What we know:
4 copies of one chain form a homotetramer.
Chain A: E1 10-14, H1 27-39, E2 44-47, H2 59-72, E3 78-81, H3 87-99, E4 104-107, H4 116-130, E5 136-140, H5 142-145, H6 151-160, E6 164-169, H7 175-186, E7 193-196, H8 203-208, E8 213-216, H9 221-232, H10 236-253, H11 258-269, H12 287-307
Parallel strand pairs in A: 1-2, 1-8, 2-3, 3-4, 4-5, 5-6, 6-7, 7-8
Amino acid sequence: MALLTDKARGVFVISVTPFKDDGSLDLDSLDRVTDFYLSAGADGLTVLGMMGEAPKLTGGESRQVIQRVIARAQGKPVVVGVSSPGLAALTEVSHEAMAQGAAGVMIAPPMNLRTDAQILNYYRQACGFLGTDVPVVLQDFPLATTVQISDELLGRLIDELPQIVMLKHEDWPGLSKISKLREAEKKGRRRISVLCGNGGVFLPEEVARGADGAMTGFGFPEMLVQVTDLASRGDIERAQDIFDAYLPLVRYEQQPGVGLAVRKYVLAKRGAIASAAQRQPGAQLDALAQAEVERLLRRQDKRLKELG
Amino acid sequence: MALLTDKARGVFVISVTPFKDDGSLDLDSLDRVTDFYLSAGADGLTVLGMMGEAPKLTGGESRQVIQRVIARAQGKPVVVGVSSPGLAALTEVSHEAMAQGAAGVMIAPPMNLRTDAQILNYYRQACGFLGTDVPVVLQDFPLATTVQISDELLGRLIDELPQIVMLKHEDWPGLSKISKLREAEKKGRRRISVLCGNGGVFLPEEVARGADGAMTGFGFPEMLVQVTDLASRGDIERAQDIFDAYLPLVRYEQQPGVGLAVRKYVLAKRGAIASAAQRQPGAQLDALAQAEVERLLRRQDKRLKELG
Amino acid sequence: MALLTDKARGVFVISVTPFKDDGSLDLDSLDRVTDFYLSAGADGLTVLGMMGEAPKLTGGESRQVIQRVIARAQGKPVVVGVSSPGLAALTEVSHEAMAQGAAGVMIAPPMNLRTDAQILNYYRQACGFLGTDVPVVLQDFPLATTVQISDELLGRLIDELPQIVMLKHEDWPGLSKISKLREAEKKGRRRISVLCGNGGVFLPEEVARGADGAMTGFGFPEMLVQVTDLASRGDIERAQDIFDAYLPLVRYEQQPGVGLAVRKYVLAKRGAIASAAQRQPGAQLDALAQAEVERLLRRQDKRLKELG
Amino acid sequence: MALLTDKARGVFVISVTPFKDDGSLDLDSLDRVTDFYLSAGADGLTVLGMMGEAPKLTGGESRQVIQRVIARAQGKPVVVGVSSPGLAALTEVSHEAMAQGAAGVMIAPPMNLRTDAQILNYYRQACGFLGTDVPVVLQDFPLATTVQISDELLGRLIDELPQIVMLKHEDWPGLSKISKLREAEKKGRRRISVLCGNGGVFLPEEVARGADGAMTGFGFPEMLVQVTDLASRGDIERAQDIFDAYLPLVRYEQQPGVGLAVRKYVLAKRGAIASAAQRQPGAQLDALAQAEVERLLRRQDKRLKELG
Lengths: 308, 308, 308, 308
């Protein structure tokens, strides 16, 4: 499989990890949801991300997920989340994943990093352990990691570590970060791919500011594909029309903790996975919340029909 | 002026604090924005909240803001944010505010609190310093304070401290917290007022689950009033229609840091304040962001006309 | 090997994990340091603790460490640190360790927990995954984890989860926590073992207040053994004499980050391990710091001789 | 009174703020403890620091403390802690303090700062608000503030903001920070004064590495004076002898939260203040802890006599 490059664009869906109701891994549903994402127009997939319940898996299960998705992905690039408290474990899983055909690995900074120097040093060490032939996606998600990467530091990371080919952008607020990055590139810094996260909640603006697409999840990944496509082609009004129709659900799914329960509920309802179960510890979608989601789905359906 | 009680309902707008371009307090604009909020249908006002740039004011300026808004508020209740690292300062400003006619004070927990026992003890001490005749709004906003209040602890606070008459609810996710609170009240716990924050981003669901309204800010406070009113009367579909029309802007305004710049930009554009300036340190709305906001405003206007 | 019980007492040394200068695991040194700890009078050992560089090991290396130390420990109880972001991985390594003869497992709460309810729920789930026959050491170390466990919550954990047989006490400040725990036990709560951490910096006071000993590391573990023994037998003055002689080094070793470099330097100097190397990322002891440690060692030696 | 300069050296004692048992400010004791500090050999005083219970005072009380101590300080420099969430309040209190004769102000970074750029920008703004004629002490205390300042960033702050004349050094671990700072100065960076905090727990090493003394508190400030003096003159062994005699109490006083209770207990016992009371919320020294302190005091007394 081809390696991830700084030319990557479009939508890489952050895949859920399906479980059966008893908490065991559901590999059949993993196949099914892989097909579902690809048929929705995904340009790639990312497994074992934060919304993939990665920390809940054993090492062996992680390997199964990686193998299974790569085998099913019809040659589309698969990025593997390898964030880990320790570099030896991170390196081991990264090398295994690359050997199996992964396109690259995604690394979020550990929660204990604070200063620019600490963060820079961490990525230096991680890249050193991995070797320069492993493409790295830098996940910039301070709401989850508490680690903040300034515009200046981001520039230093890009300048110094060429194997960082992509930014998974979910700083919050972060629109100006995209603009500043693209400006710096116009002035000579090497261009990297920027795919946006945060459930897509700022996707129209992000693509308009120069992002190459999305790397996130949502119960309706076809929205991410359409909005990215329309906004990339400059049709920002139509992109925003589509986006606005889905926005009430995007917003609802963005609730921390509950969000994954909503996403899995929708995916199960749409037949992409057999069960909405999360492995423990995981939030449940209670009856009230289900009713709220169902109401939003009905309204979304109606609004999409109005839009044509 | 009447004291705040557990019967309070409707919309208490979190007032911005207007500044001139040179950073000095703009008391004329403070009058104007007070009128603006009231004409939008506000049932009350809250000054010196987090989005009121309270920590940027000197003690003397804070007193000016309190006096001015109470004098202008046409008898509507004015809640004063008094969160402070120390109880002596908190008590001093609270007693001054109450003497000037405030309806109550709002207290967020200091960032260093962690355990249930620490949080409970803090509110015990704060209420002890204030005296039982000062109505207290408990601000539950973990995204900003990092302090998390569990359902169980919230119950203990309500049980033990009768002067807590209102919850400013902006836990995230927090829909189930409202439902659990209302369930506990049905089983015998005393009922308190629940007004919701977070820029109103879950307002339809919150009111449908039993919240009494909103205590938050937005460039279009009339939306908060209409949605609260419609949802309270059970017309959740119409409430959501109105809400959805404003949601793209609500979402945009919810970006931390940038949000207040958006809100002040809109308020200045609508003539409610003379300048969108924030006192330093404060985010600026650059040209790109202004264009994004303008685009959202045009779309919002169009959508509201479609809805009639 | 016998399981850990609430009767455990004495000193369980937190073992370092020796590496060669090239960063590879040094199993011969692991044998040697195991012998060293036991000959210093250790009543048990704890492997893969925070100061054992656990997160830097791969899964396979962790297994090697566990096996090797248990095989070498002459039947003394070996506790295995299994803290992990996910319960499946935690359970897998715990079951493997117990099958190999570990006496119990040690679990620190994940950094994202805040409320009493979250912490209680986490330990409920962890114990549920492990099964009731796996003895658990609760590591209470807020300086490292940011998770604070109140006296009240500690009581609830002990009451509800009988397999928690030991508290690794390193709350800071935490002397009163020991006293309150022992008081509650006098009033009827089941008694658990309390071994103290924090590099032993409060050991005389801790044992005098009812702790059963220490579970921590230090370049001179014989100090931990002597102080625990003397203080347990009521000879607090002699215990403190010994302690005070080592205190300048204890203090120096307690520096976060640098501390492990000091400890390994001393252990290498004493011949207990071949190299002071840490696996990356790890602090180095530079020439200035080495000179400071050497000066403290000379003074310590002199003072011990004075004491006789 | 003379302004603070980068030549400052010796011991600036962080003054406690005395309260009566009823929680009211005890200005007579404030006079007495000021005399006590000066008679112990203090070269300066710092009021309204973290251990001065500054956030518990009202604005009016803070002014009283500043005036009273400056009037009593016999012309010795008085630094005023002015850390505050907002720059307007910080500026107001700073200008008032300087007008009353303060030698300079001390500013710790607000807890919400993370990136190098944010921290740099904050100090730029603060210095801008203050004006260049107000000498600033930069308090670098990450254990309390959670803000980490790297060696590199510290250099940028010193380079860019000449009014930062002193570093209150209490990074932890931070010995290498002093050495790196002094090395950079040898290579041409302007020299600033470095006074160390952390209760003096690393004072011998700090002075030996180039610190100019201490800015911290302790029940026996004469120890800080003697150790600084001896170590500055190169008599590190005698400095460490004195230090080691006090170290068991230094260690005990260093417990977060409890530490101030210990310090005030000792100061009250020594007659420097009338009551050990802290204003609420504040830790109490219970009977067990008092007995521990008394035991340490007896041993300290004996050891000092042995040393002669």
